[in-house]
Design goal:
Radius of gyration: 22 Å
Structural class: mainly alpha
Number of helices: 11
Distance between the termini: 24 Å
Helix content: over 70%
Largest sheet: none
Order of helices and strands: HHHHHHHHHHH
Shape: elongated
C-alpha cells in the first residue's frame, strides 16, 4: 500500500481529482451547516418584478431559480443526492458484476454460459435507453433511480471480471489448490478474488463518474429524482427554458456535474497506474 500511494501521489492530476472529491464530499456532508437557506424555501423577493430568477448577488451567491429558491443551497443539497446515488448505485453494480463474473469465469459450463449470454443481452441495449425504459416502468424516486442505474451498469465490470477469472483459474496455484481439496468457495474467495481487487477498485472509482452522469441525464429527462428533492440534473431540467435569460441556472449545476465526473475519472486513471504500473499510459 505504501508503494501504491507513492505511485499515486506522483500523479498530480489524480491528486488534484482526489482533492476535488474531498471538497465535494465535505460540502455535501456539511450542507445543512453551509447552506444559508432551506433548499425548498421559496422567497417572495427571490424573483424580479417580471417573475424572472435573480442573478448572483450578495444575498444569493449563485442567484435564485425559477421558483425563487436559493441556487447555492440547492447545489449543496444536490451534491448529497448525486454522491449518494453515485456511490450506492455503483457499489451495487460493482458487487453484482464482480460476483456474476467471478462465478461465470470459474464455473464455466452451462451456468457460466447462461450468465455471460445474459450479460451480452444486457450490453446490447444502450444504457441510457434501458435506464429510461426501466425508470418509466417503475415509479420514479431516489431508491428507484439507484436500482435502475445499478441494473444498467453491472454488465461492464462483469465482462472484465469474467475474462480475468478465466485466466486466473488456469494458473498452477489454482490447480494445486484443487489437488489439495480446496472447495470452490475457498478458491474463489482466497485465491482468485484478491487478484481482482485492483480491477474492482479502479472500475468502482471510474463507475461513480458514469453513474453521476447517468443520474444527471435521467433527472434532466424527468425520469430521475423527483422534486422537491434537489438534484443537479433536475436543476438543469427546470431551468432550461431560461437558458438565454438566466444562463447561471444551467452553467453552475452543469459545471458541478462536469467537475465531479472529471475528478473521479482522474482518480480512477491514477489508481489504475498506481495499482498496475504495466498499464501506465494505456487506454
Amino acid at each position: 500500500m505504501d508503494e501504491t500511494w507513492k505511485r499515486f501521489r506522483r500523479d498530480k492530476l489524480a491528486v488534484a481529482g482526489l482533492l476535488i472529491i474531498i471538497v465535494f464530499v465535505a460540502a455535501a456532508v456539511a450542507a445543512p451547516v453551509l447552506a444559508p437557506y432551506n433548499p425548498s424555501e421559496q422567497f417572495f423577493d427571490g424573483l424580479t418584478l417580471e417573475g424572472s430568477p435573480l442573478p448572483p448577488n450578495e444575498r444569493f451567491w449563485f442567484g435564485t431559480d425559477t421558483n425563487g429558491r436559493d441556487q447555492f443551497s440547492r447545489l449543496l443539497y444536490g451534491a448529497q443526492t448525486s454522491l449518494l446515488i453515485g456511490i450506492v448505485a455503483n457499489g451495487i453494480a460493482v458487487t453484482v458484476g464482480t460476483a456474476l463474473g467471478l462465478v461465470a469465469g470459474y464455473v464455466r459450463g452451462l451456468p457460466g454460459s447462461a450468465i455471460m449470454r445474459f450479460t451480452d443481452l444486457m450490453m446490447a441495449f444502450p444504457p441510457l435507453l434501458l435506464a429510461i425504459a426501466l425508470a418509466a416502468i417503475l415509479k420514479p424516486g431516489l431508491n428507484i433511480v439507484i436500482l435502475v442505474i445499478a441494473l444498467v451498469n453491472w454488465v461492464q465490470i462483469a465482462r472484465v471480471i469474467y475474462t480475468e477469472t478465466v485466466s486466473l483459474s488456469e494458473r498452477e496455484y489454482i490447480e494445486a489448490a484443487r489437488a489439495l481439496g480446496a472447495g470452490t468457495g475457498r478458491i474463489l474467495v482466497r485465491h482468485i478474488l484478491p487478484h481482482l481487487v485492483p480491477t474492482v477498485i479502479v472500475y468502482a472509482t471510474l463507475g461513480i463518474a458514469t453513474t453521476v452522469l447517468l443520474e444527471a441525464m435521467l433527472s434532466f429527462l424527468g425520469r430521475g429524482v423527483q422534486p422537491p428533492t434537489p438534484a443537479w440534473g433536475m436543476m438543469i431540467f427546470e431551468s432550461q427554458s431560461y437558458f438565454l435569460n438566466a444562463p447561471w441556472l444551467v452553467f453552475i449545476p452543469g459545471a458541478a456535474i462536469l467537475i465531479l465526473a472529471l475528478a473521479f475519472n482522474l482518480v480512477g486513471d491514477g489508481l489504475r497506474d498506481a495499482l498496475d504500473p504495466t498499464q501506465r499510459g494505456r487506454g
